[in-house]
Amino acid sequence: xxxxxxxxxxxxxxxxxxxxxxxxxxxxxxxxxxxxxxxxxxxxxxxxxxxxxxxxxxxxxxxxxxxxxxxxxxxxxxxxxxxxxxxxxxxxxxxxxxxxxxxxxxxxxxxxxxxxxxxxxxxxxxxxxxxxxxxxxxxxxxxxxxxxxxxxxxxxxxxxxxxxxxxxxxxxxxxxxxxxxxxxxxxxxxxxxxxxxxxxxxxxxxxxxxxxxxxxxxxxxxxxxxxxxxxxxxxxxxxxxxxxxxxxxxxxxxxxxxxxx
Length: 261
Description:
By secondary structure, the chain is mostly helical. 45% of the residues lie in helices and 3% in strands. It contains 14 helices and two strands; from the N terminus they run E-E-H-H-H-H-H-H-H-H-H-H-H-H-H-H. The termini are far apart.
């Protein structure tokens, strides 16, 4: 019997927890030379999904382990699998700001959508996907999906309005600190006060990560510094404190003195 596997009366061999943990550890820490041997021991590992729906490519994406991605694809790990938040491995790489992993997916022929280009700060690629500047789209009060489902849900991608897609892209750029991309989206009509994941605005997410340039740009374009997110009931100021971003908190004191404890 191969090491790390244990018998299962109905399905032959199943992996031990040690095998699963070792495989995920090697992917997360970019020990690419060990991954093929582990998958040789456990071929069905290509179908492994965690409770959030992430497969091995998602783990490689979030670890920015670009050198492992071609091998995982070659062995049949599904590059179109979606997490419970509706994200493919390429979108997950963009969400995590993992540019090396995203570039490897793109080199393998996968396409970047509006969200992916925005979250990665790829302005030139983004321009070809944007509507005309100030295109007349009804401004969304909230995202077309609640935070419980998450962004990018596959069942609603086809029916999303122009302004909704711009708002989603705005969140990605703000979360990862791409101020120039953020400015481009605003010029094309993205609503700075649109709500997304956790019912939070782009300003909430920029504050959480301490992206001061993004915060200034949003505030200059009438982003609401007093807005409460819809899940925690907090202002961007409190999100900045939660992220231990004192510079962001000080910036918001100017715009939202009522947010002080």
